[in-house]
C-alpha cells in the first residue's frame, strides 16, 4: 500500500501510512491465536445473520448475496489475471469455484432446517475426514469412531421430528464433502495462482454458478436496499473478514496450531445459535458436538506428532 504525503513539497514530516498499512499494523499487534478466534466468531455471526434472512429470502438467494458481495470485494482487492492461464489452471479454478458454490448452498439449506451448532458439527466431518485420510495410524480409528458417535447422537432416533430434519442432515453431509473438496482444491489453487487471486477467481466462478438459482428464487426481493445491505454484511463476516484474519494468522503460527484452534468452530457455532438465534440444544446434542470437536482435536494433534 502506497503512502501519501502532504501537498507542501518542503514539508519534511514523515508520510502518513495508508489505511491498508494501518490495518496490517493493527493485525500484527494481535496474537495470531486471537485472530483465528476472531475469524471463527466472524463466520458464525455471519451465519446467524444469514439464517435470520431466511424469513425473507430462501437460502439459495442468501447464498447468492453472500458469494456475490464477497466475490466483488475479493476481486477488487486481488483481481485474478486470466491471461496466460493453462487449461489445468482453468480446470482447478473452475472446479474450486463450483465446489465453493455447492458447499455454501448445501450448508445454507442445512442451516434452514437444523440448529447452527448441529449443522456446523456435521459439516465439520469434511475437514476431519481430510485430516484422518492423511494419516496411517490405528489410533485414528478412535477419532473416526468418536466422530461417528457424535453424528449418531445428532440424529433424532425415535423422536417425532419432521422430514426436514433428516433432509438437513443430508445437506450438512454434502456440505462437509464440499468442505473437504474445498481444502484440497484450495491447496491446488494456491500452487497455480499467486497470492489470494485463486480464491478471487473461485468466488467469481461460484457467483456465476449460483446466480441462476439465487436470482430465480430471490426475485425482486434481492433489489431491496436493506436486504442488499445485510447481504453485504454476511459476505464480509462470512468470507472477506475471516479469510483475511486466517491468512494473517497463518503467516505467524504453525499450521497444526491453526488446525487445533479451528476445531473449536462447532462449539462456537452452537454458542452463536444460542446467543443470537435462541436455539436451545439438548444435552445429547451438546454431547455430540463435544465428541466431534474432540475427534477433530485428536486427529489434528496426532497429525502434528507425525511431522
Automatic annotation (TrEMBL):
Pfam families (alphabetical): EamA
Keywords carried by this UniProt record: Cell membrane, Membrane, Transmembrane, Transmembrane helix
Keyword Membrane applies: yes
Localization terms from the record: Cell membrane
Sequence ranges assigned to domain EamA in this UniProt record: 35-136, 167-298
Protein name per Swiss-Prot or TrEMBL: DMT family transporter
Plastid among keywords: no
Database matches in InterPro entries: AA-Vitamin_Transporters, EamA_dom, EmrE-like
Amino acid at each position: 500500500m502506497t503512502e501519501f504525503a502532504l501537498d507542501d513539497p518542503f514539508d519534511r514530516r514523515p508520510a502518513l501510512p495508508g489505511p491498508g498499512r494501518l490495518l496490517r499494523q493493527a493485525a500484527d499487534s494481535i496474537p495470531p491465536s486471537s485472530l483465528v478466534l476472531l475469524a471463527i466468531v466472524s463466520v458464525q455471526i455471519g451465519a446467524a445473520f444469514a439464517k435470520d434472512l431466511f424469513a425473507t429470502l430462501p437460502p439459495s438467494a442468501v447464498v447468492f448475496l453472500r458469494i456475490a458481495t464477497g466475490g466483488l470485494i475479493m476481486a477488487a482487492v486481488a483481481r485474478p489475471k486470466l491471461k496466460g492461464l493453462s487449461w489445468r489452471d482453468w480446470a482447478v479454478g473452475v472446479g474450486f469455484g463450483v465446489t465453493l458454490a455447492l458447499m455454501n448452498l448445501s450448508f445454507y439449506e442445512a442451516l434452514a432446517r437444523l440448529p447452527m451448532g448441529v449443522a456446523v458439527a456435521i459439516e465439520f466431518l469434511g475437514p476431519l475426514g481430510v485430516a484422518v485420510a492423511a494419516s496411517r495410524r490405528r489410533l485414528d480409528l478412535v477419532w473416526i469412531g468418536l466422530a461417528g458417535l457424535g453424528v449418531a447422537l445428532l440424529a433424532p432416533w425415535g423422536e417425532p421430528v419432521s422430514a426436514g430434519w433428516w433432509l438437513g442432515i443430508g445437506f450438512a453431509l454434502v456440505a462437509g464433502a464440499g468442505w473437504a473438496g474445498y481444502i484440497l482444491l484450495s491447496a491446488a489453487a494456491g500452487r497455480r495462482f499467486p497470492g489470494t487471486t485463486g480464491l478471487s477467481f473461485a468466488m467469481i466462478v461460484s457467483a456465476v454458478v449460483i446466480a441462476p438459482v439465487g436470482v430465480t428464487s430471490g426475485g425482486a426481493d434481492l433489489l431491496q436496499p436493506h436486504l442488499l445491505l445485510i447481504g453485504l454484511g454476511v459476505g464480509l463476516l462470512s468470507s472477506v473478514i475471516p479469510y483475511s484474519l486466517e491468512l494473517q494468522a497463518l503467516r505467524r503460527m504453525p499450521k497444526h496450531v491453526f488446525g487445533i484452534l479451528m476445531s473449536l468452530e462447532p462449539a462456537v457455532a452452537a454458542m452463536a445459535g444460542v446467543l443470537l438465534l435462541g436455539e436451545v440444544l439438548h444435552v445429547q446434542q451438546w454431547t455430540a458436538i463435544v465428541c466431534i470437536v474432540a475427534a477433530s482435536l485428536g486427529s489434528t494433534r496426532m497429525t502434528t506428532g507425525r511431522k
